[in-house]
Amino acid sequence: MGKAGRTGDGVPGSARGNALSGLAVALGCVLFLGGFVWGAIAYQPYTVPTESMHPTVKAGDRVLAERIDGGDVRRGDVVVFEDSLWGDLPMMKRVIGVGGDKVVCCDKAGRLSVNGRPVAEPYLRGGGPASSTGFDETVPDDGLFLLGDYRQGSQDSRVRLQGDDWAVPRSAVNARVDATAWPVGSLGAVDRPDAFAELPGGVSDPGPLRLLLVAIVAGAALIMGGAAYGPIVRRRARAARARLG
């Protein structure tokens, strides 16, 4: 009986402990490394270039943006886009209107409206009206009406209305900002505004970032727990063997 319960090192029960430990470490590695690989495929880090999206994100913040197709863009999204008519670098703005929308500003309460429906914008910096200049535009098909959250300091669709480049094509969008990753004090998700959820098409679903983080944390826990479990089991088995003589 005693020999049947022993492994090559002569410690009863250590085989089971080694097997469970190895299994936990292997599963942990799959989750941990898989989470990082998934993140590298799904997300692109960007550094915020200007203060135009303050206070949602600030100049110098490092954000994680989910790689998406322009067809996945919804109102309220903070998107990263590149349009040669707007500049040579990636830019970040908030989507206010999509193709066919009538975007107007401002009503008596200082709000802009989309298709006749006033939009509350709690993310705006400093309160006040939604824009210091009025506008009444219909967004062309496959176009986007983009504004910064810091309206007094944002070069966006409003300031380009005298030209032909105020609407950014959907195809120019590379990614949608999901979270701020740095600095630590700014760490957090970039939520979808409730006001746009009531409009046709609603708002976009959150990206896989939270699930990805869960996989990484769970993987790390399994690796550390599995690595510790084997020695603990062997130690207990040796102690039990010593008591039995």
Question: Could you characterize the architecture of this molecule?
Answer:
By secondary structure, the chain is an alpha+beta fold. Helices cover 28% and strands 23% of the residues. It contains 3 helices and 12 strands, in the order H-E-E-E-E-E-E-E-E-E-E-E-E-H-H. Strands 1, 2, 3, 4, 9, 10, 11 and 12 form an 8-stranded antiparallel β-sheet that branches. It has a 4-stranded antiparallel β-sheet with strand order 7-6-5-8, with no helix packed on it. Helix 1 packs antiparallel against helix 3. The longest helix has 36 residues. The two termini are 15 Å apart. The N terminus is likely disordered.
> What does the largest sheet look like?
8 strands, antiparallel
* Count of discrete alpha- or pi-helical segments spanning 4 or more residues: 3
DSSP strand count: 12
**Alpha-carbon distance between the two ends:** 15 Å
User: From the alpha-carbon coordinates, what is the Rg to the nearest angstrom?
Assistant: 27 Å
Question: What's the rounded overall pLDDT mean?
Answer: 86
Q: What overall geometry do the principal axes of the alpha carbons give?
A: elongated
* Fraction of residues in β-strands: 15-25%
Q: Which regions are unreliable across 5 or more consecutive residues at pLDDT < 50?
A: 1-8
How does the helix and strand content classify structurally?
alpha+beta
The succession of helices and strands, N to C, reads: HEEEEEEEEEEEEHH
Portion of residues in helices?
25-40%
